[in-house]
Structure formats: structure tokens, C-alpha cells
Amino acid sequence: MSSNRSGPQSASSTPAELPLLGAPVRERADAARNRIRVLEAAEQLFAERGVDAVTMDDVAGAAGVGKGTLYRRFGDKGGLAMALLDQRERELQERILTGPPPLGPGAQPADRLGAFVEAYLEFLERQLDLVLLSETATTGARFRTGAHALWRQHCRHLLGTGGAADAEIATDVLLAALSAEQVRHWLRDRELGTATLAQSLVRLARTWLR
């Protein structure tokens, strides 16, 4: 859908309504298996130690691949971190586009919006430092990512379809609340649980809908 549509729309999103992330490059089966092993190893190590404390050697050892293979494929740790983030964003997008309801098509806007909030917070909890890095690398970086455009168009569609009085502003407010910096503050400084935070944000979002 176009982002400036404001009239009633179907509750079921179709792939045409979201700006697709770039298509993955085709690769050999063995290369794909190595990539998956590397990304899973990196994700686990980043979660356990933090991004700064993990080296490329650590990832290569945990994944069971050669260091040369790792460097050729990802360049450096920054490239590896962004590849991991990109992979997880694609997985969430696929669940939104073609997965089962309520996150995928087929549910009412309020239910889909609540499911998105919950799914995005789960995604953030696993990749919080990486998302924070991507959103704060430069001033306004959060608004320039392809993923942000995708999440914004999806939420704008659901809020508009659900009857939000000002879907544009409501979308921006919701995504500001879901920014990595804000969520990090709630989870780590305020020590809120992810489930509690999700419930609060879902309740707030539902107040904007008919």
C-alpha cells in the first residue's frame, strides 16, 4: 500500500503493502550452511558476552569454520554484526508477510498490531546492542534504515485500517517507544520484564483504535 492512503483498508496485509528488504544473494548449499552456523554462533556469543567482548576468532571457533572463511564472507566484526541483524530482520518480515495470524495476514488490525509489538520486542531482546548500534551510528540513523521504513509502513497500515485518529503520528509514537535506546532503558535501567513492557505497549496501541 502507499504510505499516504488513509481510507478503510483490508485487515490482511499483502506483500505489496510492505517495502521488501533486499533479496538475499544466492549461494551454494555448503556456503549457506556455514553462514547459518556463523550467524547462530555469533548471536549466542554476542548475547552471552556483549558485542564488544567477542572477537572474530571466537566466532570462527564456535562455528567450526576457518578464520579465512569468516573474514572473506563478512569482512570484520561490524560486517558480521550487520549480517546477523539483516538475517533476523528478514525472518521477522517473512513472518509478517506470510506467517500465520495474528502476526501474519488474516487477523484484525488490533490483533496484528499487538502481535507485531510482541514479536518486535522479542527480536529486540535478542539483538538489542546490534539494533542500538545501527540506530545511533549517526544522527537520525534510525529513520534511514530499510527496516525502519518497513516497520513504519506496516504499523501505519494497521493503525489506519483500525481507525486511529492520526495514524501517521500514532505510528511515529509507537516506533519511538520501540526504538532500541528506549527499550534498552526500560529493560536494563528500569528493569522491566519484556512481557510486562509488551503488555503495556499493546494496551497503549489499542487505545488509538476503534
Explain this structure.
This protein has helices at 29-49, 56-63, 67-74, 77-98, 109-136, 141-144, 146-161, 167-177, 180-189, 194-207. It is mainly α and 210 residues long. Helix 1 packs across helix 4 (77-98), helix 5 (109-136) packs antiparallel against helix 7 (146-161) and helix 7 (146-161) crosses helix 8. The longest helix has 28 residues, at 109-136.
- Mean pLDDT across all amino acids: 87
**Form type:** globular
Largest sheet: none
User: What is the CA–CA distance across the termini?
Assistant: 21 Å
How many whole angstroms does the radius of gyration measure? Answer: 18 Å
Strand content: under 5%
Report helical residue fraction: 55-70%
Weakly predicted, low-confidence segments: 1-16
How many E-type strands? 0
Specify the structural class: mainly alpha
Q: H/E element string?
A: HHHHHHHHHH
- Number of distinct helices: 10
